[in-house]
């Protein structure tokens, strides 16, 4: 069985999607429609801007979504059975399996990005990658560390990202190194994604999601919060809302997809991050890229 997976924030690079834009009229039309939906020229930033411009959350998220949707149009000869997306990538996955239209998906991504940026600006916060420790050890130390610090991304065995108040994240990093972490590396982000500090953003996203039409999926969709296939559109909505303050359980999601028969994963979007993570989760599956 084949699965499509869609990357999240951090996979962006200047020039992403330009080759498809130049070579396919359907992709060009799709990408240019994004400028009209968003109300600003995001394509120029994607194709010709600086890395600094592109990494602003309110630009990064819709840019990655647009690139992933362009890459999806380039996927030929594949009949997928399952889809999943890492954090932001979940919106791309929902468009790919018919739950959302491209237009509604882009509007929701834009709303999410702006709300997350506002939450980041309101609270000094950060994230850190922890390498070489078991998940339960990281979870315990986060619980024991004063302040807000929580597991945010279960990326693969031995790689977990924590998120929270800057002081709490820094303190947890010290404790995690003492517990045997190979690395505890602060990430170049200005916010605590997938933590309780995203609650103000969650409220704004929830309103937008509840006012958007979600359809029954055409294939299995594995969500970050549940880690299992979800069919009910209302449940999909609730999981998408909960994801903003809850952890991305990517390791568990991929493991469950493999248990249900997935043997081949195609990354649809910029970068190759997910391919690397999936091989670390299970080296026996095939991975490839749509770009």
In short:
The protein has 291 residues and is an alpha/beta fold.
How would you describe this protein?
With 291 residues, the protein is an alpha/beta fold. The protein folds into 2 domains: 2-121 and 196-289, 3-Layer(aba) Sandwich (Malonyl-Coenzyme A Acyl Carrier Protein, domain 2); 124-186, Alpha-Beta Plaits (2-Layer Sandwich), CATH 3.30.70. It is 48% helix and 16% strand. It is built from 13 helices and 9 strands. It has helices at 18-23, 25-38, 42-48, 51-54, 57-73, 89-96, 102-122, 135-144, 166-178, 199-210, 233-242, 250-259, 273-281; strands at residues 2-6, 82-85, 125-131, 149-156, 159-165, 183-186, 220-222, 264-267, 286-289. The strands form 2 sheets. It has a 5-stranded parallel beta sheet, sandwiched between helices. Strands 4-5-3-6 form a 4-stranded antiparallel beta sheet. Helix 5 packs parallel to helix 6 (89-96), helix 5 (57-73) packs antiparallel against helix 7 and helix 10 runs antiparallel to helix 11. The model has no long low-confidence stretch (mean pLDDT 95).
CATH class of the largest domain: Alpha Beta
CATH superfamily of the largest domain: Malonyl-Coenzyme A Acyl Carrier Protein, domain 2
Predict the CATH topology of the largest domain.
Malonyl-Coenzyme A Acyl Carrier Protein, domain 2
Largest sheet features? 5 strands, parallel
Low-confidence stretches: none
**For the largest beta sheet, what order do the strands appear in spatially?**
7-2-1-8-9
Structural class: alpha/beta
* Element-level helix/strand string: EHHHHHEHHEHEEHEHEHHEHE
> Beta-strand percentage?
15-25%
Total helical elements:
13
Q: What percent of the residues sit in helical stretches (DSSP H or I)? A: 40-55%
Mean pLDDT: 95
How many whole angstroms does the radius of gyration measure?
18 Å
Described by the principal axes of the CA atoms, the overall outline is: globular
Distance between the termini: 20 Å
What is the tally of beta strands? 9
What is the total domain count? 2
Question: Per CATH, which architecture of the largest domain?
Answer: 3-Layer(aba) Sandwich
């Amino acid at each position: 069985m084949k699965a499509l997976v869609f990357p999240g924030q951090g996979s962006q690079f200047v020039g992403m999607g330009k080759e498809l834009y130049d070579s396919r009229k359907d992709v060009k039309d799709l990408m240019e429609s994004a400028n009209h939906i968003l109300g600003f020229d995001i394509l120029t930033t994607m194709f010709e801007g600086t890395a600094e411009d592109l990494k602003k959350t309110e630009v990064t998220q819709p840019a990655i979504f647009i690139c992933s949707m362009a890459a999806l149009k380039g996927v030929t000869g594949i009949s997928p059975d399952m889809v999943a997306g890492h954090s932001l990538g979940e919106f791309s996955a929902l468009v790919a399996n018919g739950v959302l239209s491209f237009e509604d998906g882009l509007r929701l991504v834009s709303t999410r990005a702006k709300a997350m940026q506002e939450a980041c600006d309101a609270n000094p916060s950060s994230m850190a990658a922890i390498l070489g420790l078991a998940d339960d050890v990281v979870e315990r130390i986060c619980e024991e560390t004063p302040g807000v610090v929580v597991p945010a991304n279960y990326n693969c065995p031995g790689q977990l990202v924590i998120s929270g108040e800057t002081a709490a994240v820094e303190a947890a990093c010290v404790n995690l190194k003492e517990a045997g972490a190979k690395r505890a590396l602060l990430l170049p982000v200005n916010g605590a994604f997938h933590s309780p500090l995203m609650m103000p953003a969650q409220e704004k996203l929830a309103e937008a999601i509840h006012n958007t039409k979600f359809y029954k999926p055409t294939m299995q969709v594995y969500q970050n919060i549940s880690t299992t296939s979800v069919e009910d559109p209302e449940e999909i909505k609730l999981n998408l809302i909960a994801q903003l303050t809850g952890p991305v359980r990517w390791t568990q999601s991929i493991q469950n997809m493999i248990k249900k028969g997935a043997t081949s994963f195609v990354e649809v979007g910029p970068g190759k991050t997910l391919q690397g993570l999936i091989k670390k989760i299970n080296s026996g599956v095939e991975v490839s890229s749509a770009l």
